[in-house]
Design brief:
Order of helices and strands: EEEEEHEHHEHEHEHEEHEEHHHEEHH
Strand content: 15-25%
CATH topology of the largest domain: Rossmann fold
Structural class: alpha/beta
CATH superfamily of the largest domain: Vaccinia Virus protein VP39
Radius of gyration: 32 Å
Bound molecules: S-adenosylmethionine
Largest sheet: 7 strands, mixed
CATH class of the largest domain: Alpha Beta
Distance between the termini: 50 Å
Strand order of the largest sheet: 9-8-7-10-11-15-12
Shape: extended
Number of strands: 15
């Protein structure tokens, strides 16, 4: 079986593999790197973005994380324009500069990226050019073109770039959920509904036990690590099935087309799975709970372990209905969590010497009083600066130990130390005060997470088996064997 690119990443981007193009922090684009596709360009397959065109021949062979500059693509060799170029033109006519990027949340090139990228780069004939520097023999980059980074597929990058068919579970939530569910290599997990497959990919990585798709040597179904995924919306099932196949996750993810609230968790082959963890991202998770008991026929719960459950609901009324159903069904350790993810913007706020200070004042003062206050502050700093320059000059002159009133002057060394100290302070001041703010556009409420545990059943037989192993009666009599 083919290894999944999500688990076995080659050190470089290879042909026919999945790659994630990082355009900006909030704008990632998954592509399949191709050598054979003919997009109508002389270069073969080309991905067009608002930061320019990227022939796949310039991406294949790059180390993951490389920064790549856009190329000028040749559209004229066949006397017609490539289909991507035509689409892009049509998109531009509509005021949209990019044809292939679905999200387009943030339109700027990342601020934190250097203005003149000098990272590894391949020339179009497939050779690494200039020992990883920019290939100066390349045609000049067109105005408006820029650069991107090429990233390997990971569940995080997939979540940020996938085609949303539904609301999805994001990384801050699923990383917390998976650790609370104790999902680990070899675990068997149910997820319903599968939706856009965001949680599916993260769960698959969590349970993957290191076997590169060859499960034939493993006897137990759950020991290979398994995600049993259910979805009742046919087109979503089809799209996710295609993605699971493309991402070589068939050995780990078993997707079943089923309404879990009405039909339960039976698999395609009419057998139940046997799981230790369950994640329900459904509008009415309490309706599925009747199928998640140990006594129900075809119970999907592993009889030999406690089962951890999480439901994901946006409204508190859904939480109340779920908690009530969980209590009645004998679940324990029921509690609710909300993950409040905040992006924190940390930067230096510049209020430096005169000119910069004035700019700082204009840019960031909230009121006139504050602006005047800051202006005074800047002027004080400026006069301190001038005073310290005077001290520097005097330090260079002949040393005078007392002034006219007989007070002791600081020694030359003391004055130099002071100047150095002040220079340091000035430097920090010029860099600005370190401030941080939460970025307001990040929505903090995603959903409420309800967690619960169903202990393993314990019957006479279990007690007998255990008694043979651990002779409790003997222990109580104080005569262990
Ligand atoms: N967790 C998914 C992700 O991260 O991409 C998103 C799930 S989406 C919010 C909810 C999905 O549950 C929808 O795709 C919907 O079709 C499916 N669904 C709703 N009720 C269902 C049911 N009774 N059985 C199976 N799937 C159901």
């Amino acid at each position: 079986a083919r290894p999944s690119p999500f688990f076995h990443t080659a050190p470089t981007a290879t042909a026919d593999s999945l790659a994630i193009l990082h355009l900006t922090r909030d704008n990632l684009l998954p592509i399949k790197l191709q050598t054979t596709a003919d997009d109508g360009y002389a270069e073969g397959a080309v991905t067009n973005t608002r930061f320019g065109s990227f022939p796949h021949s310039t991406l294949i062979g790059l180390e993951w994380g490389s920064q790549v500059r856009a190329s000028k693509v040749d559209t004229g060799t066949r006397g017609r324009k490539g289909k991507n170029a035509k689409k892009q033109e049509a998109a531009e006519d509509n005021g949209v500069a990019e044809q292939s990027n679905r999200k387009r949340k943030s339109d700027e090139q990342p601020e934190d990226t250097p203005a003149s990228p000098t990272k590894k780069f391949k020339s179009s004939n497939g050779e690494k050019a200039n020992g990883g520097k920019i290939d100066t023999a390349r045609p000049p980059i067109e105005a408006g073109s820029g650069f991107i980074h090429i990233l390997p597929p990971t569940p995080e990058a997939w979540t940020a770039s996938l085609d949303h068919r539904t609301q999805v579970v994001y990384t801050p939530d699923y990383s917390y959920i998976l650790q609370r569910l104790r999902a680990r290599p070899g675990s068997a997990v149910i997820e319903a509904g599968a939706g856009s497959g965001s949680f599916t990919h993260a769960a698959a990585r969590a349970v993957f036990n290191g076997y590169p798709g060859d499960s034939s040597k493993l006897s137990k179904r759950q020991s290979q690590g398994k995600v049993y995924s259910y979805e009742f919306h046919e087109p979503r099932v089809q799209t996710l099935r295609d993605e699971i196949r493309d991402h070589a996750l068939e050995g780990i993810v078993e997707l079943t087309h089923r309404d879990v609230c009405n039909e339960g968790f039976i698999l395609q082959d009419n057998t139940p799975p046997s799981v230790d963890a369950i994640f329900l991202d459904l509008p009415a998770p309490w309706q599925a709970l009747k199928h998640l008991s140990r006594s129900t026929p075809n119970s999907p719960l592993n009889p030999h372990s406690a089962v951890h459950l999480c439901t994901f609901s946006p409204c508190i009324e859904q939480v109340m209905a779920t908690v009530s159903a969980l209590r009645k069904a004998g679940w324990t350790e029921i509690n609710m969590i909300e993950v409040q993810h905040k992006r924190i913007d940390v930067r230096r706020e510049r209020v430096g010497l005169k000119e910069e200070g004035l700019r700082g004042v204009n840019a960031s003062a909230a009121s006139v009083d504050e602006a005047i206050g800051r202006l005074r502050e800047v002027e004080t700093k400026l006069s301190d600066f001038n005073a310290s320059r005077a001290v520097t000059n005097s330090a260079n002159r002949e040393e005078i130990t007392t002034n006219t009133s007989g007070q002791k002057h600081p020694s030359k060394q003391e004055r130099l130390d002071r100047i150095k100290r002040e220079a340091e302070e000035r430097k920090l001041y010029k860099e600005g005060n370190l401030v941080h703010r939460t970025v307001p556009e990040v929505k903090t409420h995603t959903s409420y997470l309800v967690f619960a545990v169903l202990p393993r059943d314990w019957n006479e037989d279990d007690e007998k088996r255990c008694g043979e192993q651990y002779p409790v009666d003997d222990i109580m009599r104080g005569t262990p064997k």
